[in-house]
Fold this sequence. Notes:
Elements: H1 4-14, H2 26-39, E1 72-81, E2 90-95, E3 111-117, E4 121-127, E5 139-145, E6 152-158, H3 168-171, E7 184-185, E8 188-190, E9 197-201, E10 204-206
Parallel strand pairs: 1-9, 1-10, 6-7
Antiparallel strand pairs: 1-4, 2-3, 2-5, 5-6, 8-9
Amino acid sequence: MKTRRQMLENCIVRGSLLAGATTLSNTQLLAFWEQGEANAHKPTSTEVLGPFYRKGAPNNTTLRINGEPGFPLRVDGKVVNTKGQKVHGVKIEMWQADYKGLYDVEGYRYRTKLEVADASSYSIETILPGHYDDRPAQHLHYLITAPGHKTLITQAYFATDPFFDGDPDKNFKKRNIVASRELVRPVALYEGPGPSRASIQFDICLETL
């Protein structure tokens, strides 16, 4: 079976890719294709929805209340498609457990539905979620929708979580909790001035319909 590169080279040789690009050499055409392949983005891995999803969450970027228990956490990210282009009209639903590992199933504590619109980036102020027996790795739930794109259900995990025993590369498959290593994010710690907090970057890549 021919590779995609071999098929492209064959098309160039036969001239079937030169229409509209006659000023480019065969080498330049191949270089442009290889650059596009290198810049292609892999869709974010999917995860289970979980039993604690609840519709109707408010659009709120600050889930943490000053003075309440729990270690402060900032989550930043951007939303792109597999070509690396920003996605318009994005809605990001996020929910999580509190510091004890409990979910609010009657109200909307630690739940939000962000209207990202045309900015293609998001930021949340929350706390590190607690552990609970059914899913012992700390995690954030995501449900992302956007016009012309497949709905994505996924989760973000934390490389500093004791669940991974200090080695997420080796232990992310433990107990089949995490679907993909890419979902376990590095954690940065900021200490002063002001309160200490953790931070992760969780970028999202959506597939088009």
